[in-house]
Structure formats: C-alpha cells, structure tokens
C-alpha cells in the first residue's frame, strides 16, 4: 500500500495493482478501516459501491475522480507533463460532490461507501505490454465494479476510429469473455468531456450507443450468445462535463451534478449492479479475480464468488468454534458431576454459537452459508457427543451394576417381585435417561441402543445363569428321590416292581413341575419368554430321563443282580413267612424247600433283566432335540461315566436300538453268567444245609 498524496487528513489510496502487475497486500485492512456501517439498523456489509474509470491516457480521468469523490489519485502535472504511476489505484471516496443548495461545501458525506478504482497508464496505441494491461484492467474493472465510467472527449464521439474505437472494442471484447458467467449487468457511464453544448447530449448518447451496437454486431461471438444483445450485459448512461479551462465554473458545477446522481440512486439503481459480495470479503474476492486475470485463466465469476463465500464462511466457523465454543466449553468445570446442569449449559452454548455464525455468515451465498452452518453444527456436536458418551457410559455402568446388585438382593430376600419385572424397570430407566441427555445431540439413538443392548445382554446372561441353576436343582431333587425308589424296589424285586417304579416316577415328575405349571405351559419365574420356558422344561425332562437311565443301569449289573437273586433265594430257603429260621426234618422237605426257593428267585430274575412298563407296556425313552447339548445344571461326574458314553454311542443307533439299549439291564450273555453263578451259589448252600442235617442226625 502506498500513499498517492501528501494530504494528511483525507484517506490515501491503495496501489491495488502495481507496475509489475502485483496485487496489493493488506487490502482487507484498508477496506475494513474505511467502511462506514449503515446508519439504519443492522449492517449487512453490502452497503457499498464500486466505481471504476476507463479511458485513454490524459483525458482527465483522475482529475474527475478527485473532484467527484474527494480522492487523491495522481494527476498529470500541467506544466511538467510527466507520466503518473502506472497500475490500478483504489480509494474510499472521502466525499461525494454535490450541487444541492443545502450542501454549501459542494459535497456530501460518503455514507454509501463508494470505493473508486482509477486505472492509470492505459493508452490503446502503445506497446503490446500496454495493450495487455489495458485488457486486463478493463476486465478487472468490469468484473468488480457496478459502474464503469468511460471517459471520452466530445470531439471523439461519432468518429468511429482511432483510440476511441479501440477503447470501446476493448470493453466489448472483454465483456464477451465475461458475459456468460456474469450474472449482474454493469452500468457503462459515458462521461463526455470538454462538452461544448453545440450537439445536445442526447444526440451524443445516441451516437455512442450506435457505435457500441455496431461493434457488438461485428464481434465474433461464441455460439451460446450468437443471439444475445448488448443490452443483455450493459445499461448505458451519458453525462456531459464542460471544459475545465474554458468553462471552469460550469466544469465544477457539472461534476457536482454528477455527484448527486451517485447519491440519489439514479446510477446505482437500487443495487441492480451490486455483486453481492459482503465488504469483508471484497478484498479476497478482488484478489482472486485479479489472480485469474493475471494468469490468463477463464474468469468464472460465480465460482469465484462461491469460493470466496466458502472461505469467508469457514473463517467465521473457525472463529466461532475456537473463540467462542471452545473457550466456553472448557470453562465448564467437571461436567460429569452434574450432567443435567451441564446439558443445559451446553445446549445454550450451542445455540449461542449458531446464532453468532448466522449473524456473520448469512450474508454469503445461501447454499454455502447453510453448508458451512451444517459443518459448524457437526463440529460442535462431535465435541458435545464426547461429553454425552461419557455421561451415557457412566450411566450405563451404574445401571448395570445396580441391576446386578439389585438382582442379587432380590434373590437373597426371596422377594415376591418377579425378576422379570425388576429387569424391565431398569431397562426403562436407561431409555429415559438417554432421552434426557439428547437435548443437544440429535443422534443419541446410537448411544441409547448401545445401552439397551448392554442391559439386554446382562439380562440375558443373568437369566441364562439362573435357568442353569434351576435346571440343576430340579434334576438333583429328582435324582435323590428316584435313586431311593430304585434301590427300594429292585433290591427286593416283586412282579409289581416296575409298576411301582413308574407310578413313583410319574408322581415325582408331577411334584417337580407342579410349582411351575401355568395353564398348558410352564413358567419358571425367572423372567423367561414362553419359548425359553419350554426349553427349560425340555432340558429338565431330558435330564430326568438321562438320570433314570443312569441310575437304573448303575444299580443293576452282574454282581448286584447275583446278590439280589441270592438274597431272594436265601430269604425264602432259610426263613419262614414269619421270618423265623426254618428247620428241615427230612431230606425231601429240604429238597422241596430248595426247589421252591430257587424257582421263586428265578421267577423274579426278569425284573432285573429288562425295564418293563406299567402292566408290561413298552416304555420309550424320549428323544429330545437338545440331546446333543451337554446336560445342563449337572456336574459331569454326576451325569455318570459309563452311561454317558452309552448315550454318545446311542446316537449311532436307530431309535429302536437306542431304546432297547435303555430297556436292557442285563444282556443275554450277562443273564447266563448271573444264572450260572446263582446255580453254583445255591448248590453250595444246598450242600451246606444237607451236610449240617447229616451231622445233626449222626451226632
Ligand atoms: P488521466 O491520465 O486521464 O488521469 O488525466 P489527468 O487527470 O491526469 O489529467 C491529465 C491532464 O488533463 C492534466 O493536465 C489535467 O489538467 C488535464 N485535464 C483535466 N481535466 C480536463 C478536462 O476536463 N479537459 C481538458 N481539456 N483537460 C483536462
Ligand atoms: Mg489518471
């Protein structure tokens, strides 16, 4: 930035693009410093105008701007006629000239923030480098300004030749490279200098307009705009200023009149030409535009406008997030201590941040503004979600441990309140709390789902554990009672033994399931579903039948069968029906008693060989779908060595084979062995008895 004058009161101008075509640094600060906010209500940063000037060198452009806007652009020295500094100059208007009577000083306050661009060193007839600069500066002026002043001497109007022609052609050509991207029209304000008054201004205007249209028709146009008109891109206006030296008073007065046109909205026409870039982004925008022009890239203005909006909105996002959100977020001490209060605080903070963003960013392109707003919201929510997760996970942990201890004490106090009920209560509490913490994070559902899942898993684990224990308990109860029954019945078998055993078995089953019967189905009162209850029932049945199997087969084997038979024999052979020892008087008496006793014992042997249903019906050991699962609730020792391996084998047999294995207590081979042993033992007893009779008789 450099000053163009030595005046100390007025705003200096900025060398926006220098001789080396470099863009000025620090333009944003200059723009910001000069900007005067709207007097009425809130300022949206759009209360400004950009005016630029274009024309041949030394046609009094800078002189005009300085008088019109109180700027201090370099003016060629009248006497020395030295060249002014080349480039594009930029200045905030210090005032706007006025011819209004009440404006005694001939000027008004620049309350609309007119910024002025002065293009220096343009001379269409000079070197290639100058031509390049002429094009670029025209492009820049058109892309950034609302009003482009085309400065022209009256005597050049209508000549349709020379420098004047070159100037207008440049504006047209440059316009063509912009037209399909430019959404707002630009006002071309022809300021006719050294106006004599001989030709009325309206005629001069018509002449200029005709020239413009002629050039427009002659220009090679891209296909897209073959049918488009000059008026699709430009509005034209004309203004005449008298000769500076020959009619100085009129000259001054004309400029003041022109100044009034800038303040009475005749020229800006209700912002019809405004580029809608908030002033705080204008420096960035103009720099990007220049960068594209300087590097000969296609100048795509809408894209540039969006890029600038994005940049600015993100800048606002970052400042809101860093300077407001993070500051106040970290000021909340130990939010976990009082989650509810912190929730409210964070909710408030979130609202405050979004409001601040809205107030600063809503002036930018709608889509960009709302996209970035969404980003800000997501960024804030991500941080808040961390807090929410902590709260939810603490809550989750405390609920689960409460549930665990609650369940333990429920069992201890043997409360009537069902386990199912207590679980449902805790699950509900979890859901409620989840909803409470949702005040600032919309998608808390995921967290809540996690909590619910954890509760369900715990609940499932507890139920599984509980049903496992219950199955074991019931099985054990059956096992003890049924073992007693088997020993009682089979140690002294009778023809009715199996009838007794089965009626005892049924009685036991009835007794065991009675507390859990609920209509046609079962309820084991540990909060299981109907399906789970029937699975438990099935498992208990499976265990009971397996116990039946193992108890009977464990009890009956070669040795026990032989012992039982011998006891049966001896009871009958040695004692009478009153239990008194028998004394045999004769050998025939002995023989008859012996035969009777042996037949009696042997007649009961089938009871020990096969399981018989009540009244001789065939018993089926049920096959359960869950057969392959390990017996539940029973130690593997209990389930029993030999038999469990029989179980495994039985899977390979047909159902009838499997069942006959269950029914067969002694195989034919074992039976023969037991019988042979029985014969041997009873023969020995018989011989003993006979020997003692002989001894008694001889003594
Ligand atoms: P610029 O190069 O277009 O910016 O022109 P300047 O403002 O530097 O002025 C160039 C010369 O023209 C100076 O000597 C001025 O005094 C003179 N000049 C300024 N305004 C007018 C005018 O309205 N008519 C004439 N004939 N000369 C002017
Ligand atoms: Mg100048």
TrEMBL record:
All copies of domain GB1/RHD3-type G, residue ranges: 45-274
Binding, GTP: 55-62
Keywords for the protein's UniProt record, in alphabetical order: Coiled coil, Endoplasmic reticulum, GTP-binding, Hydrolase, Membrane, Nucleotide-binding, Transmembrane, Transmembrane helix
Gene3D superfamilies for this protein: P-loop containing nucleotide triphosphate hydrolases
GO molecular function, one term: GTP binding
Topology of the protein relative to the lipid bilayer: Multi-pass membrane protein
One GO term describing the cellular component: cortical endoplasmic reticulum
Matching InterPro entries: G_GB1_RHD3_dom, P-loop_NTPase, RHD3/Sey1, Sey1/RHD3-like_3HB
Subcellular location as annotated: Endoplasmic reticulum membrane
UniProt superkingdom: Eukaryota
Annotated coiled-coil segments of the chain: 441-468
Pfam families: RHD3_GTPase, Sey1_3HB
Extent of Acidic residues compositional bias: 627-651
A biological-process GO annotation: endoplasmic reticulum membrane fusion
PANTHER family the record matches: PROTEIN SEY1
HAMAP family referenced in this protein's UniProt entry, alphabetically: Sey1
Family recorded in the similarity comment: Belongs to the TRAFAC class dynamin-like GTPase superfamily. GB1/RHD3 GTPase family. RHD3 subfamily.
Name of the protein this chain belongs to: GB1/RHD3-type G domain-containing protein
């Amino acid at each position: 930035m450099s000053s163009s004058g030595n005046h100390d009161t007025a705003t200096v101008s900025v060398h926006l693009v220098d001789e080396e075509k470099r863009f000025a640094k620090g333009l944003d600060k200059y723009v910001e410093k000069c900007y005067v906010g709207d007097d009425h209500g809130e300022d949206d940063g759009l209360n400004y105008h950009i005016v630029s000037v274009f024309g041949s060198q030394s046609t009094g452009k800078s002189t005009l701007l300085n008088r019109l806007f109180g700027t201090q652009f370099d003016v060629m020295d009248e006497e020395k006629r030295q060249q002014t500094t080349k480039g594009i100059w930029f200045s905030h208007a210090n005032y706007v000239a006025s011819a209004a009577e009440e404006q005694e000083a001939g000027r008004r306050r620049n309350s609309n923030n007119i910024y002025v661009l002065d293009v220096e060193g343009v001379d269409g007839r000079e070197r290639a480098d100058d031509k390049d600069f002429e094009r670029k500066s025209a492009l820049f002026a058109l892309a950034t300004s609302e009003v482009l002043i085309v400065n022209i001497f009256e005597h050049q109007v209508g000549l349709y030749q020379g420098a004047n022609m070159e100037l207008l052609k440049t504006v047209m050509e440059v316009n063509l490279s912009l037209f399909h991207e430019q959404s707002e029209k630009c006002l071309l304000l022809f300021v006719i200098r050294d106006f004599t008054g001989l030709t009325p201004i309206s005629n001069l205007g018509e002449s200029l307009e005709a020239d413009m249209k002629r050039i427009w028709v002659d220009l090679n146009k891209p296909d897209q705009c073959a049918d488009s008109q000059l008026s699709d891109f430009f509005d034209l206006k004309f203004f005449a200023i008298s000769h500076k030296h020959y009619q100085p008073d009129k000259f001054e007065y004309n400029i003041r009149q022109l100044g009034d046109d800038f303040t009475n909205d005749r020229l800006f026409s209700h912002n019809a030409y405004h580029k809608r870039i908030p002033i705080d982004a204008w420096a960035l925008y103009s720099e990007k535009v220049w960068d594209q022009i300087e590097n000969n890239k296609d100048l795509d203005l809408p894209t540039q406008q969006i890029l600038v909006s994005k940049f600015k909105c993100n800048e606002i996002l970052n400042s809101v997030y860093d300077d407001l959100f993070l500051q106040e977020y970290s000021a909340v001490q130990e939010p976990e201590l009082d989650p509810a209060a912190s929730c409210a605080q964070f909710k408030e903070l979130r609202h405050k941040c979004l409001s601040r963003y809205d107030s600063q960013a809503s002036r930018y392109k709608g889509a960009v503004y709302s996209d970035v707003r969404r980003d800000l919201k997501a960024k804030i929510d991500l941080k808040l979600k961390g807090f929410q997760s902590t709260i939810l996970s603490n809550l989750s942990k405390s609920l689960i441990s409460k549930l665990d201890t609650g369940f333990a004490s429920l069992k201890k106090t043997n409360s009537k309140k069902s386990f199912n009920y207590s679980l449902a209560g805790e699950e509900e509490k979890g859901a409620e709390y989840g909803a409470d913490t949702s005040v600032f994070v919309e998608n808390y559902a995921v967290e809540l789902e996690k909590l619910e899942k954890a509760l369900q898993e715990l609940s499932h684990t507890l139920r599984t554990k509980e049903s496992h224990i219950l199955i074991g308990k019931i099985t054990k109860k059956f096992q003890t009672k049924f073992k007693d029954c088997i020993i009682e019945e089979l140690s002294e078998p009778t023809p009715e033994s199996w009838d007794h055993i089965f009626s005892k078995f049924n009685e036991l089953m009835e007794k065991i399931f009675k507390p859990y019967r609920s209509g046609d189905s079962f309820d084991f009162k540990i909060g299981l579903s109907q399906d789970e209850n029937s699975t438990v029932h099935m498992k208990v049945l499976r265990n009971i039948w397996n116990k039946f199997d193992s108890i009977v087969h464990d009890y009956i084997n070669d040795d026990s069968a032989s012992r039982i038979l011998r006891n049966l024999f001896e009871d009958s052979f040695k004692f009478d029906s009153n239990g008194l020892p028998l004394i045999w008087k004769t050998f025939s008496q002995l023989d008859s008693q012996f035969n009777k006793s042996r037949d009696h014992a042997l007649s009961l042997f089938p009871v020990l060989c096969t399981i018989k249903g009540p009244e001789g019906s065939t018993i089926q050991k049920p096959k359960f779908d869950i057969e392959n699962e390990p017996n539940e609730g029973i130690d593997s020792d209990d389930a029993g060595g030999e038999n469990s391996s029989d179980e495994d084998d039985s899977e390979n047999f047909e159902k009838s084979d499997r069942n006959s294995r269950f029914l067969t207590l002694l195989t034919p081979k074992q039976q023969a062995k037991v019988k042979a042993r029985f014969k041997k033992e009873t023969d020995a007893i018989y011989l003993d008895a006979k020997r003692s009779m002989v001894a008694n008789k001889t003594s």
